[in-house]
Design goal:
The chain contains three helices and four strands. A four-stranded antiparallel β-sheet has the order 1-4-3-2. β2 and β3 form a beta hairpin. The chain is globular and about 35 Å long.
Amino acid sequence: MSEIHEASMNFDIENVEPFLRRVAQLIDGFGSNEVASVMSDIRKMNVDDENDWMFAVTYDERSIPLVLRVFMGDIDAPDLYFFTTSAELASRLQDEMGIFAEEQGK
């Protein structure tokens, strides 16, 4: 079994969709339709709800799984977790989270 790598961060709810749109620019197989579907589900979540979405994506010309987990610890600030077998993708996502947070003044 492949090793699982994680990237995670807490987001203000209004920043989840913009960040997911940024992720969609990085990988094939996670695009605007997937973002819209995930956001539709997130908007229905209550405090303490957790949901996982699994996607077959292509990153660096390799097909890999990508799992997005959202934990609604606070209705206005969910935690997003990305799990993948690609250490490079996990690292890139974590870097993007840091850049995004900096841009938001966090």
